[in-house]
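#struct-help
A.M.: can someone run this one for me? Single chain, 479 residues.
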Amino acid sequence: MHLSANEGIEGVRFAVTGGQGFVGAALCLELLRRGAREVRSLDLRASSSWSQQLLDAGVRTIQGDIRNKDDVGRAFRGVDCVFHLASYGMSGKEMVQTGRSDEVNINGTCNVLDACHEQGVRRLVYVSTYNVVFGGKPIVNGNEALPYFPIEDHVDAYGRSKSVAEQLVLKSNGRPAKSDKSTRLYTCAIRPAAIYGPGEERHLPRILSLAKLGLAFFKIGGPDVKTDWLYIDNLVLALILASMGLLDDIPDRKGTPVAAGQAYFICDGSPCNTFEFIIKPLFQSLGYSVPQVRLDTSVALAISRMFLFISTLFYPWLDSKWMPEPLILPAEVYKVGVTHYFSFLKAREELGYVPMVRPHEGLAATISYWQERKRRELDGPTIFTWLAVTIGMLAVFSAACLPPVGPLKWVLDIHLFVFRSMLVIRLVLVIAIALHFGEAVYAWFLAKKVDPRNATGWFWQTFALGFFSLRYLLKRARG
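D.P.: on it. Structure tokens below:
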């Protein structure tokens, strides 16, 4: 396909579902940069970390739910092309919420298709997933000829519901508009690899939060396991090329648009081991411990099923903020522990897709982003240090101040064995509190110079942990 860089974009109205997210926001901004007449973002969220950028660029942000037909119809009125990115259940606790995944990914997509039909939308690009064909069995250099993975065999609701939705989208290709039978809706699906880049919200934040807590213990799968990754700029390029591939008014092009009714795998084109390419250099650059112990995929699956069972028990409370994310779930084990990578040859030949950012460039930009983000945040020790110091301080306080009843008698006996008298125990408590308070005050004054936005946080963290917190601030001050 040989078209100008902005064919089908200049002077055109677009709608992007999920436009407040990482990919959606990047796509909205790029469409406007290329000369789109109007870009509308439909998102359940009223705001996100991208909101100000979208507002400044002139994106029309609409708060709405794709599960609500009226919201979708309102957003699509007068639009020529829709990018359907909104989804649910990709990672973490969301993966366990099967009902909502079906509501958003299947019912929501039906609403999108109906709104396109009613509003006379001409082009629909659907963002799908590798998981429509991958379900845990190795795939080497796969292509679009692969059959859909059996619906009943999916280990998560996300893969299953996205597969159903993609098939609905592709089967709707060529559907006439409600008010004008000569206007047809042309559809295609983009199947992206795992997405990364500065600001990515799904994969890396969860991995790095575990690393910060000291809970990233294991590598999963062998060193020869390879998977695909996709840098954000490359995905945005592929989405725009897909929209061009649905144009039906190109001179010298006869018949159905080249991308109509088609699906395309999109990746950076460099299969790699996730732990070696992404996790190891990222952890090292941020000063986190790199996992050394390697878990066999079968063992990791057994552990992930345990977390799935526990999460299922707490199903009614999964939306609660106090409910932690499961450490890992079965679909995530397959994602990093089983080889599966695909060719983007079809996208290159039919859409003209060639990755514009190389993997090492994308990784360098991602690392720089996380290094800067870490410099802006409160740093500190692992959860094990928190537990050790907190339990230790509570134990000394219990021995010094509380009546020795029940288990507290054992606590007192241990302290008397170590410190010999109640007087010494109480002196130890007073000295410990005084030291922590003094270190906290020093941390507050130092943070006012080197990290003023987090000065209060440094005070309280150092008051709780003492030098175990202060040493991180001193390191920041030195460097």
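A.M.: thanks! The chain has two domains: 13-199+226-270+338-363, 383-478.
D.P.: also worth noting: The chain has 17 helices and 14 strands.
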